[in-house]
Amino acid sequence: MAEGKLGQIQPDVNESICIDCGLCKKVCPSGEQQSLVKPSTVYAGWHKDREQYLSSTSGGAAAAFAQLIIRRSGVVYGCESDENLVVKHVRVEDEDQLCRLKGSKYVQSNIGNTYQAAKRDLMDGREVLFIGTPCQIAGLKSYLKKDYEKLYCVDLICHGVPSQSLLRQHIKHIVGDRARRVVFRHGNDTALRIFDVKGDMIYYSNVWRERYKDVYFNAFMDGFTYRDSCYECKFARPERGSDVTVGDFWGLGDDIPHDNVNGCSCILVNTTKGHKLVDEAQLELYERTLDEAVKGNEQLRHPKWMSRKAKVFRALVPKIGLNAAYRLCECDNIINTRFVKPIRRRLKI
Length: 349
Fold this sequence. Notes:
- The protein is α+β, with helices and mostly antiparallel strands.
- It is built from twelve helices and 13 strands.
């Protein structure tokens, strides 16, 4: 694997030893379209346990599923942000450790060897819950090559993923080498928080209150920094490839008795196993329509479009860095300046 121009980890084929078997293409989620199904039921919901709800984001549905599987002696795979600023998928089989998986991470996680570990758990007869982006779930299914009765897949309503390399560059630009942990959301508060080795918060930027303060967060929200494949994502649609899909229920009607302190989960139930998971989890549920869920979530309709501004930004980042590139592209009129026009001509945009 090698880093692309924005730091995304991508396959790098060694042509001198490649035997052209084509297996990499067969298991790649961006290749053949996997079987997708229309959700049979849609819920707005949240964790019934108030403490769990308040320590989660987006309503805590994923936390409720994870608790259920752990209490049945199963294993949960999900994403954590560790103290070395590395975002990665990890294996958890202790309920006390589920806190490691909580919180949104607006960056691509490193899958590592979790597919292999999940397969070993399944072959040992254990229940496995795997939580990830739609392409990560598709990758897992391609790797396993068959369905397992005890495998439960939960995918996220994903907007797209920037690279960890870009995130670490940004953090170093802001606070130098003092950072040890990063948090993207706390409840409904969407803000980049950076903590030092003592656990003290040394940086805070709320993306809605200070719209243009934090460049990384804003470039993410504007859709500038995703993987190339994110702009052509085959999974950004109502039909899904997992047992359950979860995310924020944006645009939810006001007829739900919910205080919305820490958000409300949008829960799309896609399979029979998904219904079983949702029915047995500790969730407060209100049935809604698929149209309402789709209307509130752009990523359930189509992938993010790569705008002309995004194309210029992506051309500038390797030359002048993330911060300078975003500052130049945040204003509409910069796209037509004498400085940017030669870049636009070369890119034919």
